[in-house]
Amino acid sequence: MEIGKNDYGIVARLASELVKNRKIVPASQDQTRIALLIIDAQNTFCHPECADLLVPGAWEDNQRLASFIKDNLERLTAIEVSLDTHTPMQIFHPMFWVDAQGNHPKPFTGITIEDVTNGTWRINPEVGKRFGKSDEWLHDYALYYTDRLGRLDIWPYHALIGSPGHALDWRIEEAVFLHSLARQTRSSGVLKGMRPFTEFYSVIGPEVLTAHDGTVVGTTNIELRERLIDYHTLIVAGQAKSHCVRRTLEHITEYIRYFDCPVSGRIYFLDDCSSSVPGFEQKADEAFQHFAAAGVHIVKSTLPMDQWPDIEL
Questions:
Q1: How far apart are CA 50 and CA 168, in angstroms?
Q2: pLDDT score at 166
Q3: How far, in Å, CA of 83 to CA of 89, rounded?
Q4: 3 and 167 in contact (C-beta within 8 Å)?
């Protein structure tokens, strides 16, 4: 299966036809502002030919999500799209770590503080040379980071910037482009995950903000967070449910718990447009039970929006 490429001219003509036939108005006229946040709907997680970190079910998830967008063009005020964006030398990739013989860990290896303490794994000294960090600093940070996370998971090289895997699934790209033309607006793209010393599952912020010595290793995307919570309704979908989607929703719900945000109580998760990394399904299910108890509505993309609970259209 080849990676699809959209014919923008054809999509533009389709947008014009839909505007005329469905009497679609510009997004600026919306009284109730509804946003769709698409998290990491990229080839690296879904495409059968070039998935570097395949999430089973993601290919079908994206087809349902693309259909949802096309069916609800006139109801979606804005679409926010995140792209997981990496280089080889990052803390969750094999290159970053070595054992006593200089071997790198295999993908899906878990590294704990005990592994660092007993010398099973250490940060590659070449990382220190690249970023100006001493071996002592690397050791102290490895202890600190693995202690904070409990377990650092090593992932296959994925979402490498500029690679076919980094690109948005062409079906999602087509639907987002169609929305932009039909609603006379633009989608907002967010690159996340470029910081070398911290994982960046959430669209909002990293797993660790500062190192053991106070050095900043990641920052919160305050602009995006404020934009998301300012909508009347926020719909969330994407990959992977167990990691990036879960952590994004945790950051959003934790924040709105302390502030009177317009979006509070009107967050919807498209459960049939998101799947978990194998082995992490239970963790995801437990998290989403918590989200539901906290007021997040878990719905199917195939259910008409006017039948969603508490929806304001």
A1: 12
A2: 97
A3: 18
A4: yes
Give the β-pairing of 267-270 and 297-299. parallel
Please name every residue paired with 236 in a beta bridge, in sequence order, or none if there are none.
37, 269
Measured CA to CA, the distance from residue 2 to residue 181 in angstroms comes to 26
Rounded distance, CA 99 to CA 123, Å? Answer: 9
What lies within 8 Å, CB to CB, of 30 at 6+ separation is 77
| Average pLDDT in the chain | 95
- Asked if pLDDT for residue 263 goes beyond 60, the answer is no
The mean pLDDT value for 160-187 works out to 96
Query: Going by C-beta distance under 8 Å and a sequence separation of 6 or more, which residues neighbour residue 24?
Result: 18, 73, 74, 182, 183
> In the prediction, which pLDDT does 296 show?
92
CA–centroid distance for 118 within its chain: 34
Domain boundaries defined on the chain: 1-33+76-83+161-169+182-232+239-259, 94-153
* pTM of the entire predicted model: 0.95
- The residues, any chain, with a CB within 8 Å of residue 72's CB and separated by 6 or more, are 305
What six digits make up the tokens of 253? 């719900």
Mean pLDDT of 125-139: 97
Q: What's the whole-number mean pLDDT along residues 143-157?
A: 97
HEC states along the chain? CCCCCCCHHHHHHHHHHHHHHHCCCCHHHCCCCEEEEEECCEHHHHCCCCCCCCCCCHHHHHHHHHHHHHHCCCCCCEEEEEEECECCCCCCCHHHEECCCCCCCCCCCEECHHHHHCCCCEECHHHHHHHCCCHHHHHHHHHHHHHHHCCEECCCCCCECCCHHHCECHHHHHHHHHHHHHHCCCCEEEEECCCCCCCCCCCCCCCCCECCCCCECCCCCHHHHHHHHCCCEEEEEECCHHHHHHHHHHHHHHHHHHCCCCCCCCEEEEHHHCCCCCCCHHHHHHHHHHHHHCCCEEECCCCCHHHCCCCCC
